[in-house]
Amino acid sequence: MFTINFSTINIWRVLILVPLLQLLVESEARSLRDKPERADEEKSSADYLQNYAEHMKSYMNFSVAPCDNFYEYACGNYPRAKADHFSVHRRNNINDLMFTLNDITVKLLGRTHLAETVNVSKELVVAKRFYNACLAAELVQFSAADPAYLSLIRSSGGFPAVDGASWNVSKFSWVNMSSHLTNYGANGLIHEELVARFPFEPLFKPPQLGFDHIVQTINIASNDSRAFRLNDKRMRGYLQAYNVPEDRIIEVINGVFAFWRDALKVTEEFNDACESLSFEEAEDEFPKLRSYYAIAWNGVNVTEDNNCYTLFAELDKVCTQHPEAVANYLAMQLLYVFDAKLTEAKYQQDYCAKTVRETMSFLIDKLYMAELFSEEKRLEVSAMVLELRKSVRKSLEEAEWLDTESRVEALLKESTLKSRVGSLKDEALTDRLIREIASLDIVEDSFATTNINLARHSIKTDRYSSLHFEEMANDTLPQSTYLGMQVQAAYYIIDNSINVMAGILQPPVYHRAWPQSLKFGTLGYIVGHELTHGFDTTSSLFDSKGNIRFWWTKETQRAFDIRTFCFIEQYSDYTIPEIGLSINGVKTKDENIADNGGLRQAFAAYHSHMKQQLEDPEQQSVSEQLPGLDLKPDQLFFLGFAQLFCSDFQEEHYYKHLTDVHTIDKYRVLGAISNSDDFFQAYNCPVGSGMRPENKTCRLW
Q1: Beta strands in 18-100 (DSSP E)
Q2: Are the beta carbons of 278 and 375 closer than 8 angstroms?
Q3: Strand partners, 205
Q4: What global pTM score does this model have?
Q5: Helix/strand/coil (H, E, C) string of 542-610?
Q6: What's the DSSP call for residue 524?
Q7: Within this chain, do residues 362 and 324 fall inside the same structural domain, yes or no?
Q8: Do 530 and 410 sit in the same domain of this protein?
Q9: pLDDT tens, position by position, 649-687
Q10: Which domain holds residue 105?
């Protein structure tokens, strides 16, 4: 007998929930009603492939041998060759797809006739009004001192740095102010996430402190550190906007850093699930948290997550010692969420398109799916998923460490797995979410007010199923399953399904004109990764029907743990020289296993697919090489995989990403490649080379 706390389980096993590469958008974004003639299509395809090969080559560092360092070989020039876009987050090839989707969003905003056809004209007008207001606003120089922002701050808890003596400490509550911040998507001291399982209740995680650079005890020990300087600059800018005197600015910023240093002594003693690492007695209740449910949820859906009670109780003691600093910090966090954080005006259109796409997602999605997601694409990807499932099934049949009882359960789970390509449909739910847009108030003479209204609307949309759970059946799926225009592939434990969303089906993940070797190295790997999640430590707690049942035997569990330890040791040995910290091999183990399993399954599926094509007399011969790129098909397969993770990190991005369950991009590539016998053979890598230091490799599937 055992119980499971869903706050500690990631029931959406997601490879990437990030948006992809701006490359020949027109070739993918062409209306399905405007297809070229066959000859033109073939010429266009040939030109596209030639151009795409040049694009892939632009990321590569040919001075490095692939067997020495495959990541550097595949991605060494990415930081210099990447397209000119602005992002406060790390840049990587997959993340860059969001810029493609932003361009498509702009085009869809002009599809008036399409909107009429799918009955969203009124909502599209609102979206265009916001987009135009955003373009016309001054975003590079953020208007932090706008009366609308100050009014919101004061109604949430106040801004002592600005309000001075009129701020009343006796009326201040860090819980109440943090609760108000969640209504606008700001990160206060209550870090809220929604469980991807009915009734979609909120759960808590330890807060991440800081603005442009999350702070930890090690990175703010010195005032000369990058973490200190970036956060100092951000706070200084907000305070200067309110004409706070310099001596007062120094005092306020020093106060916030003092609060952070004390708060870190608490937060760093808890893991991601708010489980205490040193506090012996767990709190059964934290009464002050009741106001959170009243402020953020109107008392609805109050299935309380109690893992964080001890954390909040200890954090409350720190906040009591620094009430003014806490209020100043939370006030500036509210400003931060409204700040576009742009460095130049040339990035403003992209920012405005991104804001529309993310906050009015179901409206844009309806247009996107009607205009751009073809049945041909769905059928091809569905066939690839089926090929990957065959590969996974063969691995389950051949894995010598699975005993008979566990193997039967695993094969049953695979055979009952559901496959979805594009998105699910729930017209009633998505139409309700779209109709909410019509009531969004666009204030013509106040972009700040409009910005606030939009942020509130966005959070209400995200919480819609949570707030209305009583109207829904127990088997209702998360809202995200009905949203095709997102760059996501995921395994969903609760209904044992693999989900490949429409938005991910663009370069560098997929293009219909690519050779199969490239498609399987990119999309095939992603699908394989997600399928592998159906048979990892978390999924062992759920059977083929999504019921909570531990279906591994003790013998299988023991064998799994032995093989898993190999991955833990391997990835823990990767040190990030830029910050002097190492990968957490325990925290990232399931994702690392999925990377390794997914790559192997994809390669096997590719060769199985090509064998079937050769045996089909009606199948036309198609080149498996990319013109202009002198690589054999198997080599192109691995290059496509590696270039998914070409990236450009700043110091702050490493600290942020180390809190994630996925390994840093570079080491995802190096880790999986160095365990791949298929890669060694494709590139003829000898034992003793950088990618193959010894014969021993880690393998589970």
Answers
A1: 91-92
A2: no
A3: 191
A4: 0.92
A5: ECCCCCECCCCCHHHHHHHHHHHHHHHHHHHCCEECCCCEECCCCCCHHHHHHHHHHHHHHHHHHHHHH
A6: I
A7: no
A8: yes
A9: 999 999 999 999 999 999 999 999 999 999 999 999 999
A10: 96-140+347-372+427-474
